[in-house]
Amino acid sequence: MRSNRLKLNSDKTEFMCATVRRQHHLLTVGPFIVTPSSAVRDLGVYIDSGLMQSHVRQTVSRCFAVLRQLRTVRRQVPTSVFQSLIVALVLSRSDYCNGVLFGLPANLIQRL
Predict the structure, then answer these.
(1) Is the pLDDT of residue 23 over 70?
(2) Is the pLDDT of residue 31 over 70?
(3) HSE (CB half, 13 Å, CA atoms) of 45?
(4) Exposure winner among 6, 16, 66, 96, fewest CB in 10 A?
């Protein structure tokens, strides 16, 4: 980092330890000590030890938030425009990085 003149933002730095043994690791980067997280986000995908449960939870939460916002304009726009808004705003969120969802258990896919 020093050779490339980069600075570490300790508020945004997180890591997850993926080992079989349950050990408490601490990562020291310069003067900062970073503790492991149970779930980390990379490119909008939440990775956790629970088979992507946090990613599914966040995706469902975001889609419902958009649906609640769209409900306020439902009667002011024609049906075709409203359907286009749903496709553009909701399906794009649920479809983003859907390749990581391959092989998930049926209960998580059903929730999506």
Answers:
(1) no
(2) yes
(3) 12
(4) 6
Q: Are 60 and 41 in contact (CB under 8 A)?
A: no
Contact 93, 66 (CB under 8 A): yes
Phi, psi for residue 95 in degrees, rounded to 5: -90, -15
The three-state secondary structure class of 84 is helix
- The string over 43-54, giving b where at least 16 C-beta atoms fall within 10 Å of a residue's C-beta and e elsewhere, is eebbebeeebbb
Q: Name the residue ranges covered by the structural domains of the chain.
A: 1-37, 48-111
- How far is the C-alpha of 67 from the C-alpha of 59, rounded, in Å? 12
Place of tokens 């909008």: 44
Phi-psi region of 91 (alpha: psi -120 to 50; beta: other; left: phi over 0): alpha
**How many other C-beta atoms lie within 10 A of the C-beta of residue 30?**
10
**96 Cα distance to chain centroid:** 10
